[in-house]
Amino acid sequence: MKYIKANNVLPEDMIKAIQEYVDGEFLYIPRKNENQKAWGEKNGIKDILKNRNHEIFQKHKEGITMKELAAMYFLSEQSVRRIISERKRACS
């Protein structure tokens, strides 16, 4: 997250009003609801994980064991089991 100086974007009277509540501290102002982004949407991690999970499922269908997949992808066997289970449900 990048910080923006309030002096550069807010009117002086608004800064003074905010200083009555928060003086010299960092303040996070959340996005408007209509501008919210889903988790992983901004940096692409959601798509990366979707592709990884698809690969895991395909390799499992080709006969690679959950233990081997866990080692290949640095995941626990339980995570691999969950990924495979979710993909099976999605394909049904």
UniProtKB/TrEMBL annotation:
Residues 13-89 form the Mor transcription activator domain. InterPro entries: c-mor_Regulatory_Protein, Homeodomain-like_sf, Mor_transcription_activator, YraL-like. SUPFAM superfamilies: Homeodomain-like. It comes from the Bacteria. NCBIfam families: CD3324_fam (NF040785). PANTHER family: MU-LIKE PROPHAGE FLUMU PROTEIN C. This is Mor transcription activator domain-containing protein. It comes from Clostridium manihotivorum.
